[in-house]
Each structure stands twice: as C-alpha cells, then as structure tokens.
Amino acid sequence: MAQNTSTQGSRAPEGQSTALVMSTTAFTVCFAVWTIFSIIGIQIREDLGLNSTEFGLLIGTPILTGSLSRLFLGIWAEQYGGRRVLALVMLAAAFATWALTWADSYITYLIAALGVGLAGGSFAVGITYVSKWYPRERQGTVLGIFGMGNVGTAVTKFLAPFIMVSFGWMMVAQLWAIVLAAMAVIFFLTTRDEPQLAARRASNQKPDSFLAQLEPLKNLQVWRFSLYYFFVFGAFVALALWLPSYYVNVYQLDVVTAGLLGAAYSVPGSLFRVLGGVLSDRWGARRVMYLTFLVSLGCTFLLSYPATDYVVHGIEGPIEFTLAIGFIPFTILTFILGFFMSLGKAAVYKHIPVYYPDRVGAVGGVVGMIGGIGGFVLPLAFGVMNDLIGVWTSCFMLLFAIIAVALTWMHFAIRRMEMQESPELAGPKYLPELSGNPPPPSRAASDGPTASATPTRWSRATGGRS
Questions:
Q1: Do 302 and 418 fall into the same domain?
Q2: Would you state the pLDDT for residue 1?
Q3: What percentage of the chain has pLDDT greater than the value 70?
Q4: Is 158 in the same domain as 227?
C-alpha cells in the first residue's frame, strides 16, 4: 500500500494546518450555498405559483447535481490538485448563485440550480485535498474536522430567513454568492498545492488517466462503503429536511419551533463528526461503524412503532390504553440517532485513505455521490411510504431496513476477510471436553499457547484483524 508523502518524515509539511483550516472554512461556505433553496425556495415557490412536484424538483436539483458531480470532481482533484479545483468549483457555484437573480422562468431557475449544486460537489475535492496532507493514523481526525463544514446548512437556516424577510430572497442569493466568490480567492491565495502534486510536477510525471482512476470502483468493497454513507449521510440530510414537517403533523408544533428543532438537529450532527474521526483513529473505524449501526438500529426500531390504541378485555370490563412515543422521547431518540450518524460519517471516510491511498478522489467521490443521492431520494421515499402505509413512522421503518442490510453486509464481509487472513478460523474447533477423548498430539500442539509463531496483528486503522 502506498504511503502519503506527508508521512515520510517526522516534520509536518509547511502549510499543513492552513490547508485544513481553510478547506474546512471553504466547505462550510459551500454547504451553506448548497442548501440555500431550503429558505429562498419558499418565496420562489410563491412567486412562480409552483405545485408540490415542481417545488420538490427545484429544491432537489442542487442536491442531486452536487451529489453526481462528486465523482468527476474528486478525480479531477486527484489529477490536477485539490487547491485549484476547489477554487474553480467555488467560483462556478458563486456565479450560478448570483444567476438565480436573473432567472425569469421555472426552466431558468432549474438551470441555475444545476450550477448551485456544484457547491455540494466541493466535498469530494476537499476530502481528496486534505487527506494528502496528513499521515494515515491522523486522517480520521482531520477528515472529521473537515466534515464539520456540514454545519453550513444550519448557518443558512439561521441567517437566511432574517435577510429574506428584511430585504427579499434575491439579497440572500447575492450575499451568499459574494461570500462564496471571496472565499474562493482567499482559499487559493492562502493555501499551497498538496505535497504529492508538487513532487509529481517536479518530476514531470503525468497524472493517471480518468479511466485508471476509476479502476477501484470494480471492487465490491467500494459499493459497500457507499451503502454505509447512504445511511449515515443521506439519511441524516433526509431527516434534517423531513423532521420539521414531522413535528408539525405528528406533534402539532408551529412551523417556527419545528424549523428550529430541525436546525438544532443539524448542528450537533455536524460538529460531532470530529469526535467520530478521533474515535476512528483511536479505536478503529470498524468498531465505530459497528457502534453506529447497532445504536441506530435500536433507535429506528423504537421510532418505527406507530401510536397504537389497545383494548384489553379485563375482568371488570375493557381496559383501554395508548402506546406512543411522546414529543420529548422522540426528540431525544432523534438526537441520539443524529449523534451516531455523525460518528459513522467520519468512520466511513477513515476507511478510504487506508484502503485506497492513491485513489481517494475517485473512491471518496463515488461514496460521497451515493450518500448525496440518499439525501435526494430518501425524502421522496418517505413521502411514498406515508402514502402506501399511512403512518408517519414509516420513514423510520425504511431506515431500520437499510441499517439492517448494511450491518449484515458489513459483518459477513468482515468475517470473510478474517477467514481469508486466518483460514484456521473456518475449520471446526476441537472440543475434547465434549467428546471425552484427549486431543491428538497435532491438535494439542496447535491449540496450545504456542500455537503460532506469528501473532495476529490488530489494525488500529480499521479496528479489526490485519
């Protein structure tokens, strides 16, 4: 396995900390722009008289294009350097955001929204860029710090409504565009090219072709990681969009309170991603994923239970009672779910530089793409589940099924890897105490304390045998 240039030598490369800080700041601004339609879309819908389907397509277009663009943007960052690509992405998204104020029809709004979506593609570029600056044993922490940029969605939800009420939605788009363009310039001027890119240019070495970058995508493991991220990121984004409506319809909260609860759900779910990175470095990403899936499975199982009225035929007549999750338990469970999702987001991306150090752009891009698609598809699926089943808790039933599949796949894949590394685990274990016979000499020797001269190693990077 190739090793990052930054790991060669004990001294950190010059510009390392600046690269992390500026990349995280830039991603925060990008994420705020990426979710701008969650606020300004309300006024645009009213101005254009859009129906629910048209409105859903409008606010979903940036999410979808931002997700799909992550694959090729990640590869370009690998080929041409994350610093240059990220700055260009921010400038392009800033232009598209400003162009919203020029739109005069539904079609032109959709076209501009396609460009706004590029801001979401910045994630794959930033992951590629930041990972090149740090050694493998620290990448869980630093990628978790970079992922804090998800808090940009809360920035938009908290600030944009006040600006829109005071000055109109166009002022929001113009201010967000100006800030993003300024961030692109500041980022480019204050950061350096990653050490590997500088070394490659010094040796006049050409980058690998686009098709060569896609080679790891043939591995089923990449798509397994993508399923993990479909839940921990895609479902997180979907719930951030879905919860306000859930609070209003199930617990009869007003829109303002429901919106604040939705924003509050997003903030810790973004900030605790750093903790997920730290734990992945210390305990191993595999252990963190097990913890994430098991706790999430329990939370979604409880949240899936619909409010139910029971009638028990008692001795002295019917006994009636209702079993339902109240507002406070529901809020606590969703916050627990969001917390462990944030740990899982960091753990998934801890795996990628470990297994694919030279293809972080392509692998991280496709994993991020599938996760982003989850944020687009799952809210639609939640609505379909409501229509088909007729209960509001059906969204959590769907998430429970997704987690169960991901956990099962992960567990059996890990077991298969362990069997390949240690074939003796697959054979039957000799238990002489059950048979009443002493073990044969060869068996006794192999089962003793000196069974193997080569001890099994434990990989801190993945949290498993290696």
A1: yes
A2: 39
A3: 84
A4: no
Which secondary-structure segment (H or E) carries 322? strand 317-323
8 A C-beta contact, residue 432 and residue 438: yes
Instruction: Examine the domain organization and report whether 235 and 341 are in the same domain.
Output: yes
C-alpha to C-alpha distance for 178 and 156, rounded to whole angstroms: 15
Q: Where are the alpha helices (DSSP H) in 132-254?
A: 139-147, 152-167, 169-190, 195-202, 210-213, 220-229, 236-251
Residues 285, 180, single domain; the answer is no
> Average pLDDT, stretch 232-241?
85
Total number of domains in the chain = 2
Residue 322 lies in a domain: yes
Identify the pLDDT of residue 10: 54
Q: Backbone phi, then psi, for 42, in 5-degree steps?
A: -65, -45
The burial of 113, by beta-carbon neighbours within 10 Å (0-12 exposed, 13-18 middle, 19 or more buried), is given as buried
Tens of pLDDT, residues 291-311: 999 999 999 999 998 877 778
Provide the token pair at 112. 């501009």
31 and 179 inside one domain: yes
Q: Is 321 helix (H, G, I), strand (E, B) or coil?
A: strand
Structure tokens at 188: 């480019």
pTM of the predicted protein model: 0.71
Query: What residues make up the domain containing 245?
Result: 219-424
Query: Average pLDDT of 20-29?
Result: 92
Q: 134 and 98, same structural domain?
A: yes
DSSP string for 6-42: GGSSSSPPTTHHHHHHHHHHHHHHHHHHHTTHHHHHH
